[in-house]
Design a protein that fits this description.
Blueprint: H1 2-5, E1 22-23, E2 41-42, H2 53-65, H3 71-78, H4 82-90, H5 101-109, E3 129-132, E4 137-140, H6 171-182, H7 190-193, H8 195-200, E5 217-228, E6 237-242, E7 247-252, H9 254-259, H10 261-266, E8 269-279, E9 282-292, E10 303-304
Parallel strand pairs: 1-2, 5-10, 7-9
Antiparallel strand pairs: 3-4, 5-6, 5-8, 6-7, 8-9
Length: 306
Amino acid sequence: WACPTLPAAPNAFPPASTQPRTNADASGGNDVPAPAGGWVVRLGLRYVKGLRERAGRAIVTARAEAPFTSAQDLARRAGLDRDELQSLASIGALASLGGTRRANLWRVALPSPGELFAGVTGGDDGPALRKDTRAGAVIPAGDEGDNTPGADVASIGDPAHEATPLKDMTEAERISADYAGMGLTLGRHPMALQRAELTRQRVITARGLDELADGMPVRVAGSVIVRQRPGTAKGFVFLSLEDETGIANVIVTPQLFARRRLVLVAEPFVIVEGILQKQDGVISIRARRVDRCQGLRPAVPSHDFG
């Protein structure tokens, strides 16, 4: 099921709405462990933004020859540049090689002395140093780095021995990094982070609409994954709001769209108040009010007015 639908995103299906339990890992390991007795889908490297196709193929080829043992090994054997390694680190694709996302981002951003002096590191009082054997001098690492692909990150050390001053990402930051780096998340749906507060505001989940009667006033919230305004709909706009339980369909009148156009077009997360409609097995909400959903920042991709 996931194999034909995920490649169609976001043109036919937004990635989050087609996503079962997924993982992405450059080394062949798992960023998110599979649930006991369950299945996971390992995402392809094609989802990683900023990763060249040639680099992705090089990773797959090198990984087939032997597992990667460190970020240093990955960079050297696949010929990755620093930006590509940072992209992988930010989405947790280096997790199985050791270290947290921020720790890996810190390590791959450090200046490199080059492959020859890969084991030379600095202490707490200053940057790493290397010896210029031609002049007999010691100079700051990275001043004369190798320009060969992978060489600028060839000295990344063992994560167990590399300290980082950066705090690890919060769950919300990891989700934002996932969306920024792949267009989907490996963790919980963003709406799940706000569920306790939304429940206090009497916001119903998409699945919860099944239990309510036709004509009831309801409040729903979600990420806007689809916006449609068919030419034959006389100005009506249709939204698909996704939360952690499913998708709610929203009908917006031309008058409401004119009043709340900016929110409806630009906000990735919205709260909708309206009347529940159940007709011929189809559930929708006829919106009366639309507001921005506070506290959520991921740039969730959407399929708009296509």
